[in-house]
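Reopening: NETI protein still failing for me.
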Amino acid sequence: MKKETKWFEVEENETIGACMDRMAELGFQIAGRKEEPLFAEVDGQPVPVRQIIMLKGIKEN
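Support: Ran it again with your exact input. Result attached.
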């Protein structure tokens, strides 16, 4: 059986739980998580804006 994987980004105004619900509606189960900072340049200096949270989903076909 082949497993399909897909990364889901937690939207800016969305909770992690809401993203997990969205994944479940599409038949995916959570299999991993990664975070990375998002920066903006202010006066030539990088300033952290927010964390980007990605959830890895797997679905058996």
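The helical segments are 16-25. If you still see a failure, please send the error message rather than a screenshot.
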